[in-house]
TrEMBL record:
One of its GO terms (cellular component) is THO complex part of transcription export complex. GO terms for biological process: mRNA export from nucleus. It comes from the Eukaryota. WD repeats lie at residues 68-102, 114-156, 239-280. This is Anaphase-promoting complex subunit 4 WD40 domain-containing protein. SUPFAM superfamilies: WD40 repeat-like. Belongs to the THOC3 family. Keywords: Repeat, WD repeat.
Length: 366
């Protein structure tokens, strides 16, 4: 079956060359057909707008970061709620805080402290379907669910080890938790009780579901990404991704790719349908600790012990901007609606004490 695979406009916008499934190319003269058919003209206008939008890039060099203070010790994790209006931060000071962020405003930011954990809050994640519910994972062996409207813990599960990773299934029904003993626990959110437990005989780092929730990814200390079916948790594939341990994983919001950050200082980009590596991002020189796609899937941010955060174009692989930072980064996350990047690291003050800050890049003024 013959089909058009690609098309581009010639400068006067009257001709579109098109690549077919065969190797030949055809040209269509739109100067005549536009007069004959308003529908074709409307389609052409939409195509032109799309091309123009794609050509526009974010003026990164004109954007600024703002700093947010509140924690007493360093921040391990930052995460946005599903509508991009609130940011949560988890800290070594045993608390999480929730900040109301106005993407285009500059009013004083209010924050809410979530207290109850008795050890470091290592990672947190928001319910993907509910803008006021957040789950926290702590070294105190508990996982807690909070309603930020009241600031109260609504559910709590006591697990077997020090929890370091947590992620929601995209439909909001399950939460996956990883601990320091390489054990995975899946919790049913409604009852907040474990429904799956699995101990692995290799180092398990970050974990993630794909967008449809039928595949589950584990990054490992062996340099592999283990792909499991869900809910069976049966092995589907082992991807030899890097020459050193894989530390972090991010899923493209459009569902096309996933990215993996490694101790070999590389970020690899994988086609999720083919399970093939399509490119690598090479700007960092230290082990990659944290990565995140922006909401359109056009850009990927990655960070390490390098004193900058790299932002690269996903399709070209080129670095388009670097955000300077003063310490190794622990967490970066793009807002799900706007081009705002939250980031937090091991920042210290002049007395070498933890600053307990995080920052957000992407504002038009400081």
């Amino acid at each position: 079956m013959d089909f058009i695979r690609s098309c581009n406009l010639i400068q006067d916008f009257s001709v579109i060359p098109s690549g077919h499934s065969h190797t030949d190319f055809s040209q269509f003269d739109f100067s005549k057909t536009r007069e004959q058919s308003p529908k074709i003209d409307s389609t052409l206008q939409q195509f032109l707008k799309g091309n123009q939008a794609m050509a526009e890039t974010i003026p990164f060099k004109n954007l600024h970061s703002r700093e947010y203070q509140g924690h007493k010790k360093k921040v391990h994790s930052v995460a946005w709620n599903c509508i991009g209006t609130k940011l949560a931060s988890g800290s070594v000071d045993q608390t999480a805080r929730v900040w109301h962020i106005e993407p285009h405003g500059h009013s004083k930011v209010k924050d809410l402290e979530l207290k109850g954990h008795t050890d470091s809050v290592d990672q947190l994640c928001w319910d993907p379907k509910h803008a006021d519910l957040i789950a926290t994972a702590s070294g105190d062996k508990t996982v807690r669910l909070w309603d930020v409207r009241s600031g109260k813990c609504s559910q709590q599960a006591e697990l077997s080890g020090e929890n370091i990773n947590i992620t929601y299934k995209p439909d909001g029904t399950h939460v996956a938790v990883g601990n320091r003993d390489d054990e995975l626990t899946i919790l049913d959110v409604r009852k907040f009780k474990p429904i799956h437990k699995r101990k692995f005989n290799y180092e398990v780092n970050e974990i993630a579901w794909n967008m449809s929730g039928d595949m589950f990814f584990l990054t490992t200390g062996n340099g592999t990404v283990e792909v499991l079916g869900y809910p069976s948790l049966q092995a589907v594939d082992t991807l030899t991704a890097h020459t050193a341990g894989c530390y972090c994983i991010a899923i493209d919001p459009l569902g096309r790719y996933f990215a993996v950050g490694s101790a070999d200082s590389l970020v690899s980009l994988w086609d999720i349908s083919e399970m093939l590596c399509v490119r690598t991002f090479t700007k960092l020189e230290w082990p990659v600790r944290t990565i995140s796609f922006n909401h359109t899937g056009e850009y990927i941010a990655s960070a390490s012990e390098d004193l900058f955060i790299d932002i690269s174009n996903v399709e070209s692989g080129r670095s388009v901007h670097q955000i300077p930072c003063r310490a190794a980064m622990n967490s970066v996350e793009w807002n799900p609606k706007y081009n705002l990047l939250a980031y937090a690291g091991d920042d210290k003050n002049k007395y070498q004490a933890d600053e307990g800050v995080f920052r957000i890049f992407g504002f038009e003024s400081t």
